[in-house]
Amino acid sequence: MRRFCLLSLVFISILAAAQTEADFAAVTQALGRKGKHQDGIYKVSFPRSDLKVHIGETTVEPGAGLGSWMAFRKADSGFVTDGDLVLTSAEVNPVISALQQGGMEISAIHNHLIGEEPQVMYVHFFGQGELSSLSQTLKAALAQTKTPIATPAAPASNQPFANQKQIEQAMGKSGTVNGKVLAFSFSRSSAISMHHQTLPPAMGMATAINFQPSPKGVAATGDFVLLEKEVNPVVKSLRKDSITVTAIHNHLLDDEPRMVFVHFWAEGSAETVAAGLRHALDTISK
Predict the structure, then answer these.
(1) What residues contact 17, with CB distance under 8 A and at least 6 apart?
(2) Coil, strand or helix: which one is 150?
(3) pTM above 0.85?
(4) Does the pLDDT value for residue 99 go beyond 50?
(5) b/e burial code for range 40-54 (CB count within 10 A of at least 16 → b)
């Protein structure tokens, strides 16, 4: 299995080297928004800025926990896509129908947060085929929602996140500032696949931790991408540091190895929240 994972990663690297942003022009044309191309993955994000969601007194930033996204990569035959759509309850089933009519699979429907108002749901999908067909299916799915399609205006400049250096020191790496969000990504050391198609970290297979401002200091949300044996040690660590565990579930079907996603919500001082999340990260197998 380890040899298969290594070969898969090498194969993806070869394909990535051959891909350019121009190869994904059909995605941009269909979805009406330019994505980001990196290492052969083309990823388009649609933050739900139309939804005013709060947990207690904290307004959830769209880029922290309310971001729909879809990622594409070239496969040995055609293209592969996966992603996660943030939806209101009324949007869920029309979106499911649109995805299935286009031949895509629904791999999960669930919450990521707890206690948010209004409630939001998350629909995960997977598809294989021609890029134009995949893109048009996702366009049809988005049309069943009130997701803002136009590219949002870029912030005048990304100001340093409050306590950024302190958080980065605890996380052990630099984060990415996007408006009011400080984001971190932690890749796993071996490949993850669905239906024998390798899904690189940028296709939702990396632990994501996002910090944003909160009346209590900072709030953090995201998910840990875990082997089954890692789930309860991570949950135990989170709870020991008073971090709320909001969901434990799958995002994939027929995945190899079997992966479980543990979602969380934390609020407090930057020092306390970052330290608690670092403790949980330290329980994961390298």
Answers:
(1) 40
(2) coil
(3) yes
(4) yes
(5) bbbbbbbbbeebebe
